[in-house]
Amino acid sequence: MKKILFLAIAAIAMSAFAGRPKYVFLFIGDGMSVPQRMTAEEFSRKSGAGSLAMNTMPFSAMTRTCSADSLVTDSAAAATAIACGTKTKNHYSGVDPEGKPVYSSAAAAKKAGVKVGILTTVTITHATPAGFYAHRNNRGDAYGISIDLANSGFDFFAGGGLDVNPKNSKNHKQYAECGDAYEYVRSKGYNIVETKDQFLALKPGDGKVFTKFTNGALESTIDADGTQPTIAEMVAKAVEMLDGDSGFFIMAEGGRIDWAGHSNDAATNLRDVLALDEAIKVALQFQDKHPDDTLVVVTGDHETGGMSMGFAGTGYALYMDRLVNQTMSVGKFEDKVAAAFKANPALSFGDVKPIITEAFGFKFEGDAKKDGMVLTKAELKGIVAAFDHDVDFHKSKIEENSKYDGEKRYLLGGECRVVMSHKCGIGWSSGAHTAMPVLTTAKGRCAEQFSGFIENTDISRIMKAFYE
Ligand SMILES: [Zn+2]
């Protein structure tokens, strides 16, 4: 009798997920198209670590990324397409081109009783995660997006903070009703976790989770000091917390791949791709234990930087191994140089040489023909000219404009970054996004649906069908 009852329950449980995966992982590399995946792949092979897990999945689909108003999408429109299945205007999050709310595969999963986790390495209100739970026609509305996050009812949010500015928040039309964004999240039943130790100590049954390791983004992998969890650690914790009879839907984003693409910083870019790949391995290990019930999908939202392997200066050669010499992001290098200027307004080129060597591994002595890390005369000339510009700029005391603004900024970091890319044979055509398609790869239950040439909206269409 007991056995019959058990079989009956098992049959009901199976029918609830009949033909569809009980466990869904969707990984999104922001700004990760074929060049980013393959640069990391070749770096990984060169270092002896072999192929990336994301590049060894059995099904793949070339994926078109355009938004409703441009062939070159931004992350908000791309996330809305991937999550909700609707092409919308750039800057719109979870709303159609008319501004009407559209709903995501994650929301459909939640409605069907499935546990939902949303993870990222940048701010949790950033465009990609927001596409899964927010409904705003301005991706920059971090306060409004925070309110939508709290109201989503999703089970697990991990990554950077809400990115709310208390000053601006008070002007928001919802502020009188909702108050402080973090307190509002707490009022909706989220257990707010502030340290890595607290996070790793979470146990199933601890309730809904929201992490606040910082108000901003997590560190780039290349700059990380271990005080924040990696994306792989976050995925492992999400699996531990959400695993159960109801199944789960986990979206995990490698958000800083895009940022390193915008700044044409190849070493920082590929290390974040490799970090995302470690997280994908966590999902694939889970899949090994639940092969019939699990789907793992990896995609990108768009390409960033017009990245290529092969550059006019290096001809038919590529020197991926040289990237290992870069020890910090260009952003961190720039911060170091700015701090050195602050400490010593009479900073000389001799003073910054050790910082350049520490950050990029460039050598100022030796034979450039024998050792690729020795600066050629032309490279040195460019770097010295950039430094001279920065000395004048520092004296002018003009505020630095913005990271992507070509004017009114320090040039040394940018010049070193260009030299580094050229030494390796990596080219860049843009400081912004491009319209190149991305690659979607998939493994597991229903993975065969991710093949051929698809639109980014097809990812949502396929996943929503699991929950209808
Ligand atoms: Zn971007």
Describe the structure.
By secondary structure, this protein is of the alpha/beta class. The chain has two domains: 21-307 and 432-465, Alkaline Phosphatase, subunit A; 309-427, no CATH class. The protein is built from 18 helices and 14 strands. It has helices at 2-16, 34-46, 75-84, 105-111, 127-133, 142-152, 166-169, 175-178, 181-187, 196-200, 231-242, 256-262, 266-289, 330-343, 349-360, 377-396, 412-424, 456-465, and strands at residues 23-29, 59-64, 115-123, 156-160, 190-193, 208-211, 248-254, 294-300, 303-304, 308-309, 426-427, 433-434, 438-444, 452-455. It has a ten-stranded mixed beta sheet, with helices on both faces. A two-stranded antiparallel ribbon has the order 9-12. The protein has a two-stranded antiparallel sheet with strand order 10-11. Helix 3 (75-84) packs parallel to helix 18 (456-465). The longest helix has 24 residues, at 266-289. Residues 7-13 and 401-406 have low confidence and may be disordered. The structure holds zinc ion (ZN). Zinc ion (ZN) is lined by residues 31, 75, 258, 262, 304, 433.
How would you sum up this structure in a few lines?
With 468 residues, this protein is of the alpha/beta class. The chain contains 18 helices and 14 strands.
| Anisotropy-based shape | globular
Q: Structural class per helix/strand content?
A: alpha/beta
**Small-molecule binders:** zinc ion
Strand order of the largest sheet: 5-6-4-3-7-1-8-13-2-14
Mean pLDDT across the residues is 93
Strand segment count: 14
- The percent of residues in helical segments reads 40-55%
The CATH architecture of the largest domain can be named as: 3-Layer(aba) Sandwich
What is the rounded distance between the termini?
33 Å
Query: How is the biggest beta sheet arranged?
Result: 10 strands, mixed
Query: For this structure, what is the CATH class of the largest domain?
Result: Alpha Beta
State the fourth-level CATH superfamily of the largest domain: Alkaline Phosphatase, subunit A
Q: Kindly estimate the percentage of residues that lie in beta strands according to DSSP.
A: 5-15%
How many domains? The number is 2
